[in-house]
Amino acid sequence: MAQYVIPLKYRKMENLHIVFWLLKDIGWCLIWKPLGIVMIFPTLIISVIIAWRTRQLMSELCHNLAITFWITANSYWMVSEFLHLDALTVYGTVTYKHLALIPFLAGVFCLAYYYAVWRPKHPESLETL
Description:
Keywords: Membrane, Transmembrane, Transmembrane helix. By secondary structure, the chain is mainly alpha-helical. 69% of the residues lie in helices and 4% in strands.
């Protein structure tokens, strides 16, 4: 049976990443702007580092990139609410909050690529099991 093993120092970083992410969202929920905004940076930086470290495994890379795009969209949305830009119109009925769809859809694209394109072309890969 194939196993994916995460080195302990990487796992500790992933766990710390969850703490930062929760603190960012708590700041958003409680409208503690300094906490929410400050926590964007370690949350996003660690997600990029995790994606970089898993770049050899397409499955991990695509999922970790999707998480990075999710955090980006989530952070943009939070900041747009903090700055009261979320309801302002960009064009027609599109508001600044709707622009968060761009990174959200980039994350969906990463996963769609993995499941619809990469996996079917690499059925022999242990990553697809």
